[in-house]
Amino acid sequence: MNTSHSNRIFPWVNGALLTITALSMVVPLIHLAAVSLSSPVYANAKLVYLWPKGFQLDVYRTIFGMETLWRSMGVTIAITVGGTFLYLFFTSTMAYGLSRPHAPGRSLIMRLVLITFIFTSPLIPGYLVIRSLGLENTLWVLMLPGAISAFGVIIMKTFFQGLSSELFDAGKIDGCSEFGIYGRIAMPLSMAVNATLALFQAVGLWNSYFSALIYIRNKELYPLQILLRSLILEDDSRLKPPGAGNLMPATPEMMKAGVVLFATVPILLVYPFLQKYFVKGALLGSLKE
């Protein structure tokens, strides 16, 4: 087929723009890794860019030996996994109920969901509700308030409505209840949308900062982002590795770079496992001819 000049140029321009965007995200991480792996002499002189100079692993030996970092990592993993599970369960069940044409109060509930999509809860009333429920200074406060989102409900409701009604009718003929149809038909077919929403929620929970700053007082329950704030902004001396005088194996700046990578890399490793669901799309043939 004959293609116009603009159609031939577009893939190259599009590829160049996407490459520049990807590099703008990856290069800072590469620079942090290079700084954390370099000798303090080169790091202090600002001579490290994208490749370490005077390779050493003292920074990561110190980081891996910090008990508080591992404890906060465990807290963050717990709220990320638990919060994502709660989010998918409550959001999908509500969306499935709203997608059924004969559900009582369906229109009214959907209007209320849309109101929460536009108007969010103010900080002070939200804090009073959290305190009255006894959730303050617990990990539940980081998971339950975001267990349902209007965005997720709308996305999943639209997806469920796009499924063929013949599937649900066949399930009813086979004796499935609404819970059976939801668990055996709707959810297995919605792996793509579930994976996408799970990734969004997991990233948000992993990076949760403001809620923990407001509601968590117990340092034993600090998630990773709050601990990083206290380490990097409040007390640089806590990032100094053991040593004496000029013989220190690393500087606080190098430790900051290592700690940031320590908190960033784990959530990045989730993307390759969920990438195939983005490629497949929202629906893969629900009916066989």
TrEMBL record:
Species for this entry: Paenibacillus hodogayensis
InterPro entries in the record: MetI-like, MetI-like_sf
Compartments it resides in: Cell membrane
Transmembrane regions: 69-96, 108-128, 140-160, 181-203, 254-274
Entry annotated with the keyword Lyase: no
Claim: Disulfide bond is one of the keywords in the record: no
Protein family (similarity comment): Belongs to the binding-protein-dependent transport system permease family.
Protein name: Carbohydrate ABC transporter permease
Pfam family, one: BPD_transp_1
Origin: domain of life: Bacteria
Membrane topology: Multi-pass membrane protein
Domain ABC transmembrane type-1: from-to ranges: 73-272
Alphabetical UniProt keywords: Cell membrane, Membrane, Transmembrane, Transmembrane helix, Transport
